[in-house]
């Protein structure tokens, strides 16, 4: 709708999917994790006890994802297919190692959310493909956090978003996924920062090294929410803060 209002899209016809099969607006859970129909609204996800129990990071993210009027109509499939790098959900779902079921005339295929985005408002979706379901694997006690930096209200578009999902013990980081958005042209895994942390014990020196690796890894974009140098400094600070937040139970926000 935003693209239509801006005159970028001028469709001859619109097809409503609101009354298709109820599976596409359902949230189910099993031993493998959550399955969320692509037409499920963000408000339904926010209020779901299953989501809260099995992926509380998603529930917490909803609290500052735009406003309730938007969440009442926006869907999880739309939040992904739109390809906007400022969206809050893509980095969170990528950090949670989520995948999607895509459907088209040739049948179904499964795609990790991490492989969806190719650039600014660009995805690998074919013109005749739709997102049908989003699958979030069981987290099994993983610690997680999402931190966003806005220059306006708390629910505004971020200048930077950082999502972290981590498994650690007293000795070392066993696994970690770190994803950045808004400061880049697409939601991006910070693999160099992950490599710096994995297998090591967290301390201030290690976090600084990981943050520097993140800063050197990505290309920053300037927009109305901040210049590239500004976002670079945000990244340097918030990679450290997000990892710390994930390691603390209070960090899921």
Class based on secondary structure composition and strand pairing: alpha+beta
Give a count of the beta strands, DSSP E runs of length 2 or more: 11
Q: Regions with pLDDT < 50 over 5+ consecutive residues?
A: none
First-last Cα distance? 29 Å
How much is the average pLDDT? Answer: 93
Proportion of residues in helical segments: 25-40%
Strand content: 15-25%
- The CATH class of the largest domain is Alpha Beta
Q: What's the gyration radius in Å? A: 18 Å
Number of structurally distinct domains: 2
Count of runs of 4 or more consecutive helical residues: 10
Largest sheet: 5 strands, antiparallel
Strand order in the sheet with the most strands:
1-2-7-3-4
Explain what you see.
The chain has helices at 2-5, 42-47, 49-54, 56-62, 68-71, 76-81, 89-95, 191-197, 204-217, 228-247, and strands spanning 27-30, 33-37, 99-104, 107-112, 117-119, 122-123, 130-137, 143-149, 160-168, 173-181, 188-189. The chain is α+β, with helices and mostly antiparallel strands. The model has no long low-confidence stretch (mean pLDDT 93). The strands form 3 sheets. Strands 1-2-7-3-4 form a 5-stranded antiparallel β-sheet.
